[in-house]
UniProtKB/TrEMBL annotation:
This is glutathione transferase. Belongs to the GST superfamily. Sigma family. It comes from Bombus bifarius. InterPro entries: Glutathione-S-Trfase_C-like (IPR010987), Glutathione-S-Trfase_C_sf (IPR036282), Glutathione_S-Trfase_N (IPR004045), GST_C (IPR004046), GST_superfamily (IPR050213), Thioredoxin-like_sf (IPR036249). The keyword Transferase applies. The gene is LOC117213874. Residues 1-30 form the GST N-terminal domain. Gene3D superfamilies: 1.20.1050.10, 1.20.1050.130, Glutaredoxin. It comes from the Eukaryota.
Length: 130
């Protein structure tokens, strides 16, 4: 199932395009154009890493990117939400302890999941295995 956002009766179904649109609309692109570009780099890099066949290498690269880039922001960005969702999927696929060796990634996911609206949604959302 693809996520679809309908705007003025027109469906948009590409998840990163939808996320980027909503990030602009709700001021989640960062403080300036540089931050916005770093968000794009992070999300696009995450997409590249998903092609990685070595899971250990994949998660190490993700933590390296997170340590270098995301911590430079002083506000939550759309990239944080994308990473939190990817990390949740990673734990679903490889078990609840999959992030134990990666405290920065676990902390990022927890920080996003503690946002009241996110926390509420996580409690009441329907279960999906994707």
């Amino acid at each position: 199932m693809l996520p679809v956002l309908e705007i003025d009766g027109k469906p948009v179904a590409q998840s990163n395009a939808v996320a980027r649109y909503l990030a602009k609309k709700y001021d989640l692109m960062g403080r300036n154009e540089w931050d916005a570009m770093i968000c794009d780099v992070l999300v696009d890099t995450l997409g590249d890493f998903k092609q990685e066949t070595d899971v250990q290498e994949f998660i190490c690269l993700i933590e390296e990117v997170q340590n270098k880039c995301i911590q430079t922001f002083f506000q939550t960005t759309w990239a944080d939400f994308v990473f939190a969702a990817a990390l949740e999927n990673f734990e679903y696929m490889f078990g609840a302890s999959a992030l134990d060796k990666y405290p920065a990634l676990r902390a990022l996911k927890k920080r996003i999941h503690r946002i009241p609206a996110i926390s509420d949604w996580l409690i009441r959302r329907p279960f999906t295995n994707s």
